[in-house]
Amino acid sequence: MALHRARNEYDVVALLTTLNADFGRISMHGVREELLDAQAEAIGLPLIKVWVRAGSNEEYEQQMADGLERAKAQGVTHVVFGDIFLQDLREYRERQLAQVGLTAVFPLWHADTSELIRSFVTQGFATMTCCINDGYLDQSWAGRQIDASFIADLPEMVDPCGENGEYHTFCYAGPIYNQSILITRGEVVYKPLPKPIALAPSDPDDDQYVCVSKVETKGFWFCDLLLA
Questions:
Q1: What pLDDT does residue 199 have?
Q2: What pLDDT is attached to residue 195?
Q3: Residue 52 and residue 75: Cα distance in Å, rounded?
Q4: Among 28, 93, 157, 217, which residue has the least CB neighbours within 10 Å?
Q5: Are 197 and 207 within 8 A, CB to CB?
Q6: Which pLDDT does position 167 carry in this prediction?
């Protein structure tokens, strides 16, 4: 949705995503690299991949800076993010971009998340959950399609767009796609955290910054999505 709106004002020239080099999956979401490649191809934009291994904040920032420097060398001036209301995260992104001379753009900033998710569905976007925060939702939500029933079933404490890290998704169809991506649900696995977290640190520079959670999170449910 952020990309969809950004294209109304900017000439978007590339996509950028962080992946774990050891597992070949998108960091946090757990989505396979081949699905990411299919997504970029369906959207019709080149893809810049930022690889991390250790998982430390220092490594992430260095690798991201290198990726952004490559983009800047090709004439990029702005970077689009889908954040909606997490002020500390926005400020963190703006600080990091300022160091490489780029400007952050937030097309969804302060949008009503209930209206946003309904608009997302009615405009024809199709997406499936790939990662579930167990502090908010149980295993049954992993691999679930976001539709009217999904929205209606969400507990009151869960943001409709999962903006607090309640869930993450993989979008496989919509008005920004040249063709839909055919996917199927694979195994659902549980990954516990080394130690439960109740609230992420207020400073995103902290190495323990995982997600913003208002309840205790002990781990995450991942649905392994596969190309059909």
A1: 52
A2: 82
A3: 24
A4: 157
A5: no
A6: 97
DSSP for 139-199 reads GGGTT-B-SHHHHHHS-TTS-TT-TTSSEEEEEEESTT-SSPPPEEEEEEEEEEEEEEESS
| DSSP code per residue over 10-74 | S----EEEEEETTTTEETTT--BHHHHHHHHHHHT--EEEEEESS--HHHHHHHHHHHHHHHHHT
- Spatial separation of the C-alpha atoms in residues 172 and 170, rounded to whole Å: 6
111 contact partners, CB below 8 Å, separation of at least 6: 84
* Number of neighbouring beta carbons within 10 Å of residue 34: 12
- Residue 23 has which token pair? 């597992």
Those residues with Cβ within 8 angstroms of residue 196's Cβ, 6 or more apart along the chain or in another chain: 216, 217, 218
Structure tokens at 121: 């569905």
**CB contact burial 153-180 (16+ within 10 A = b; e otherwise):** ebeeebbbbbbbbbbbbbbbbbebbeee
Closest among 59, 67, 69, 74 to 101, alpha carbons compared? 69
Q: How many domains does the chain have?
A: 1
Cα gap 125→128, rounded to integer Å: 10
Average confidence (pLDDT) per 10 residues, the chain, 228 residues: 97 96 93 98 97 89 95 96 96 97 98 98 98 97 98 96 96 98 98 77 43 77 97
Compute the residue count for the chain: 228
CA distance 177 to 8: 15
